């Protein structure tokens, strides 16, 4: 990719001791929205690169936070909470790593508690990813009218339960 080669050039200018192998392993940070769309498309196609695309988005977000903090700057607690909640939902939506999603959620809750509705949304998604479809449906149904993420999770749980018509109505 063009962006990768430009980024490698910048790294090489600032780090003259980087080996050719190290430079080849470097890729430009992916813009989160673009990366998320890419990961969603790959996941919908069941492409084997979907997990890597999701990981790239997560790494990019975490790297940005880490780099800003390493410079002694603060992004503010609201930003950190928001990013952790975004990453938790993204991990549940496009991935299957429930433990990692719950860690993102826990990291957010160390800073600020979340609403009962948000907790129910995450609990519903976790239940869905664990194959607890009835529990997921129970948790997500009351939220679906006002919460697009809950509606999406509900539709996926209904599809997996063989209730495609009801799922289509949710979407």
Low-confidence spans: pLDDT under 50, at least 5 residues? none
Averaged pLDDT, please?
84
Number of strands: 0
> Pairing-aware structural class of the strands and helices?
mainly alpha
Secondary structure: elements and pairs:
Layout lengths: L1 H13 L5 H5 L7 H13 L5 H21 L6 H18 L3 H14 L4 H14 L3 H8 L7 H13 L3 H7 L1
Helix pairs in contact: 3-4, 4-5, 5-6, 5-7, 7-8, 7-9, 8-9, 9-10
Question: What do these coordinates show?
Answer:
- With 171 residues, the protein is mainly alpha-helical.
- Helix content is 74%, strand content 0%.
- It contains ten helices and no strands.
- The two termini are 36 Å apart.
- The model has no long low-confidence stretch (mean pLDDT 84).
In short:
It is built from 10 helices and no strands. The longest helix has 21 residues.
Which labels suit this protein?
mainly alpha, 10 helices, 0% strand, globular
């Amino acid at each position: 990719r063009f962006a990768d080669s430009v980024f490698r050039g910048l790294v090489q200018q600032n780090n003259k001791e980087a080996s050719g192998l190290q430079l080849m392993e470097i890729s430009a940070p992916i813009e989160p929205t673009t990366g998320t769309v890419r990961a969603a498309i790959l996941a919908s196609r069941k492409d084997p690169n979907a997990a890597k695309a999701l990981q790239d988005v997560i790494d990019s977000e975490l790297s940005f936070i880490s780099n800003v903090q390493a410079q002694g700057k603060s992004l503010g607690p609201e930003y950190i909470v928001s990013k952790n909640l975004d990453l938790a939902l993204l991990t549940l939506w496009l991935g299957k790593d429930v433990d990692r999603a719950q860690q993102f959620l826990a990291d957010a809750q160390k800073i600020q508690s979340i609403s009962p509705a948000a907790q129910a949304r995450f609990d519903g998604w976790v239940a869905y990813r664990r194959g607890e479809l009835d529990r997921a449906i129970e948790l997500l149904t009351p939220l679906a009218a006002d919460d697009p993420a809950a509606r999406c999770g509900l539709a996926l749980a209904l599809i997996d339960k063989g209730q495609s018509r009801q799922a289509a109505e949710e979407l």
